[in-house]
């Protein structure tokens, strides 16, 4: 025992936290040995579980963020942020009202619109559409349209009775730029026998693709004056759409707009029109986070079971270390390092896997579509043409911290149990 207490004995420095021999023992316990093969299998599954859990959390949260961002950009990019509709009197002075609104701080532009439902048909097919009349000067400023022209051109928009239609609508009706689109409205000219439907053909000047199926399938744009004539509007508009510099400042902008229009109007914004949709996305995102966190929790519990079995298997070694002078704290730190290493390495591997998968999500989708021989992403069902993904660094850090904490907590009980082991009993019955 005198040798054990000698200053040159390595065990005399064992009380120093996380000494070199503690790391050496911990790493040795992580190596695979034939006699401890089952313990190594559990450690391997724990590593895989944490890696897949962290990677899945990063991928799913990134896709959910991408969905929300893309849908928000598509919806407010083509629809605007605030909608000004008349109540008592029609908006015949829409040019002046739109100009006053556009001069307000934080307002990017104000676009007067005539909206009406119609039936669009061609020689092959037909379907309901939403016709939008817009001033020729305003159309080039709607980036969601002008930046996504697939066929034709908008250079002559307003000079003739041409229209713009979405890509999905063009495919459904079998139309290309230059073909004729027939629009049928039930509210046409008033005759002695009642209201006759209005039927008129328009050449397709251009075809756009916003990337959101709901928009590409129903929107038809035509010059404002032509829309007023087609829908029997007496020189007024249905609504003025207001685009803001910051979509989140709708509440502050509403008060300024209400004062600028100088008349009773009905103000609505994008948060009211899409409240249910974005609330459902937020609920789904939170539920997915909770469910996928259980994967990491299960993997952490595997660390607990693996370490308990390792402690039982190494009880004889623990007893010898204790008799050589190793403190309970040193024994606890050895198994703490052993279990935490599995969690930390698994978390880092999951981070790398999740980031690589997210940045190459389109290539992964195309690969599985090629392997299975079918399209795994139907844009007619999922609103968007492509799988969106947007990595939020703060969420990634939160996932990593959560995985680290669970991994460390999983090692506390087995490490404490190893430190409390009685060396006499372990040597007698080990």
Automatic annotation (TrEMBL):
Principal location class: membrane
Topological category with respect to the lipid bilayer: Multi-pass membrane protein
Subcellular location per the Swiss-Prot or TrEMBL entry: Cell membrane
Keywords of the record: Cell membrane, Lipoprotein, Membrane, Transmembrane, Transmembrane helix, Transport
Keyword Cell membrane found: yes
Domain MacB-like periplasmic core per the UniProt entry, residue ranges: 47-259
Span of domain ABC3 transporter permease C-terminal: 289-423
InterPro entries: ABC3_permease_C, Lipoprotein-release_system, LolCE_TM, MacB_PCD
Transmembrane segments: 38-64, 287-311, 332-359, 396-413
Domain of life: Bacteria
Assigned protein family: Belongs to the ABC-4 integral membrane protein family. LolC/E subfamily.
Protein name from the UniProt record: Lipoprotein-releasing system permease protein
Organism: Saliniramus fredricksonii
